[in-house]
Specification:
With about 200 residues, the chain is mostly helical. The protein is built from seven helices and four strands. About 50% of the residues lie in helices and about 5% in strands.
């Protein structure tokens, strides 16, 4: 279990570096003081480690439900800790809204979530309330929603882009830009070939 936690922390460190590069592009800054230090990451690493341990201990007998807990972990850690720290370091306020906060309910079809139609109106109201009179960045996690029973359910591959469009539709946004932290376009499907 500790080996899994160490491996996930190593993966998150790589994600931090990648997100830092993307944030630098978005904010057009090369300010060394705007980056997150390893010491800052360590300050919330115990909470991240505890959450990962909880998810790993979740019964593996639940198959896809267990997988969704694990698969959504990286997105949760980035949304709940890493991105807010990086954005706030740049002097911008952050308001994190979870799927539960905005009423982003999906079907309980693990690894293949579908948004429930009645979620759009509720989400739109909650997002608009959160942005009214708020001078900062609203962060919403991608890749997963929650069932009406409160269970984490992930979307299929490309789910973060799908979720960005769902949130945007709910909020009445006119256009959406999907950014990636990978330069170029992958030429092979990872379903067909490893490292594709």
């Amino acid at each position: 279990e500790k080996e899994n936690i160490s491996r996930e922390i190593g993966r998150l460190e790589g994600e931090i570096a990648s997100q830092e590069r993307m944030l630098g592009k978005l904010t057009n800054t090369n300010n060394a003081h705007a980056t997150i230090s390893f010491t800052e990451v360590e300050s919330f690493a115990s909470e991240i480690e505890k959450e990962l341990g909880t998810r790993i201990s979740y019964s593996k007998q639940n198959g896809p439900e267990y997988k969704d807990q694990i698969k959504a972990f990286g997105e949760w850690a980035m949304w709940d800790h890493i991105l807010p720290a990086a954005i706030e370091r740049r002097g911008t306020k952050v308001n994190k809204l979870s799927p539960q906060d905005v009423g982003f309910f999906v079907t309980e079809t693990f690894e293949d979530a579908r948004v429930l139609e009645d979620s759009y109106e509720r989400m739109g109201k909650k997002i608009k309330e959160a942005t009214k009179d708020f001078d900062g960045v609203i962060l919403l996690p991608g890749y997963y929603g929650v069932s009406r029973n409160g269970k984490i359910v992930t979307f299929q591959r490309g789910g973060s882009d799908t979720v960005a469009n769902i949130y945007s539709k709910a909020a009445g946004v006119q256009s959406v830009e999907n950014w990636t932290n990978q330069d170029g376009v992958g030429r092979l499907s990872p379903w067909v070939r490893d490292n594709g």
